[in-house]
Each structure stands twice: as C-alpha cells, then as structure tokens.
Specification:
Helix content is about 75%, strand content about 0%. By secondary structure, the chain is mostly helical. The longest helix has 24 residues.
C-alpha cells in the first residue's frame, strides 16, 4: 500500500517538474509568456493525467493492458495540451 502512494508521489513530482520548463524558459526568452492561469491549467491537466494513470495501474493486472492504457492516457493528455496551447483542431478550448 505504501508503494502505491510512493508511486503516486513520484508521478506527481515528475509531472509537476514539467512546469519548470516554461518557468525557466520565461527567464531567458520573451517567446515564452505564461501567466499564472496557464500554470494552473497545466497543473490541473497534470494532476488529472497522473490520477488517471494511477487508477489504470491499480485496476488492471495485465501488464500489456496497463501499458497500452497508460500510453493512451498520455497521448490524450498531450493532444489536449496541444489543443489548448495552439488550437490544433480549432475547438472552443483552443488558446488565443
């Protein structure tokens, strides 16, 4: 049981470390211009992705199914992030 919480903590820490990329890039380039709302939305997307991955890892016993489902979750999260960032598909959630 403790291993499950340790895995969840590691997943969350790894996910939130991704937020360091734009934070550092903003210090060196004017091309990256994130506001606090951008960091909040990205953080919520990371939390949701990590929680879905954790649920998949706990519920499925077959390693192949776990791997495929985790890949699908990560793929969907990346597509959602790209849509919110640049409007890949032109949906209403697309950024400016």
């Amino acid at each position: 049981m403790i291993a499950d919480y340790k895995r969840l903590f590691i997943l969350l820490a790894s996910g939130f470390s991704l937020l360091l990329i734009p934070a550092v890039a903003m210090q060196f380039s004017s091309e990256v211009n994130w506001g606090k709302e951008d960091f909040i939305i990205a953080g919520l997307l990371i939390i949701g992705t990590v929680l879905f991955i954790e649920i998949a890892l706990r519920k499925f016993k077959n390693q192949k199914n776990k791997g495929l489902l985790v890949l699908a979750i990560v793929f969907f999260a990346i597509l959602l992030f790209m849509e919110m960032a640049v409007g890949l598909f032109g949906s209403p959630i697309a950024g400016d």
